[in-house]
Amino acid sequence: MELIIFDVDGTLVYSDKRDSRVFAKTYESVYQKPFPSIDWRQFPHVTDNIIFGTVIRQHFQRTPSAEETADFQAIYMDALRRERQKQPEHFREVPGARQAIRQLQQTDRLIGIGTGGWKTPAHIKLSHVGITVEDRLFSGGDNKPNREAILEETIAAAEDLNGGALSRIVYLGDAEWDVATTRNLQIDFVGVRHLGDLDTLHAIGAETVIQDYTCYATFEAALQAARPPKK
After folding, report:
1. Taking Cα atoms as reference points, which of 154, 100, 108 lies closest to residue 131?
2. Phi, psi (5° rounding) for residue 172?
3. Total-model pTM
4. Which terminal CB of the chain, N or C, has fewer other CB atoms within 10 Å?
5. What would the mean pLDDT of 154-173 be, rounded to a whole number?
6. Around Cβ 103, how many Cβ atoms within 10 Å?
7. Are strands 2-6 and 110-114 parallel, antiparallel or unpaired?
8. How many CB atoms lie within 10 A of CB 230?
9. Which of 47, 87, 99 has the alpha carbon at shortest distance from 69?
10. CA torsion angle for 44, 49, 51, 56 (degrees, to 10)?
11. How many angstroms from the chain centroid is the CA of residue 35?
12. How many CB atoms lie within 10 A of CB 117?
């Protein structure tokens, strides 16, 4: 059995950093402190949990509690919903993503999600564009130390469903940290750069990069050609 895992932001959905700005504005509203950056490369690991915890430590010299994190998530999710209600056209799928997922779900593969975002906000983003994936194979950044742990959780769940080892794993992502994570885990990788700057990922080791999912045959060929990123 093959497992195909998708990142969320930039890979299946796109908001031109609006979701990142919602995260930052929510933080500023709650804590009355300036959010340092929405350039996620400035953080030690690109997950909502690590980003939130890092900024809290910078501002208050402490680690947020589980209750505090949950409270912030709830406010953030309300803000995400409001933004989508106000301007739904700005929160869209990467072209062809919904149909590609549906076609994959008609095959004998397992389809999962592995996102650095918290799981419940990620559900909001996907449901807005009509993408659904089995919850058992949906892993987010909640309480994870890094992105490797996120993918490992999805893989373990898939192996449990499969009753044993998987024949192949492919991960689709859009960012340099996705390249690094799949290189570390030696997982086959397909880059997705829907704005067309495919060389961004090629330059750091990704062998297979697509712009979107509008041609399913091209997407399927990319899955077949996927390999772990080069060093």
Report:
1. 100
2. -115, 125
3. 0.96
4. C
5. 97
6. 14
7. parallel
8. 11
9. 47
10. -110
11. 21
12. 25
Extract the tokens encoding 225: 């050609």
Integer Cα distance of 213 and 38 in angstroms: 27
Q: What is the mean pLDDT of the chain?
A: 97
Give the C-alpha separation, 204 to 178, whole Å.
11
Tracing tokens 């409001």 back to the chain, one arrives at 82
3-class state of residue 138 by DSSP: strand
Distance, in Å, from the CA atom of 13 to the CA atom of 19, rounded to the nearest integer, reads: 10
3-state class of 224 per DSSP? helix
Residue 180, token pair as written in the block: 């690094």
HSE of 207, CA atoms in CB hemisphere, 13 A:
18
pLDDT score for 195:
87
Q: Which pair of structure tokens corresponds to residue 43?
A: 């953080």
**For residue 6, what are its two tokens?**
């998708």
Instruction: Report the Cα–Cα distance between both ends of the chain, in Å, rounded.
Output: 27
User: How far is Cα of residue 231 from the mean position of the Cα atoms in its chain?
Assistant: 22
176, two tokens = 């340099």
88-99 confidence digits (pLDDT tens): 999 999 999 999
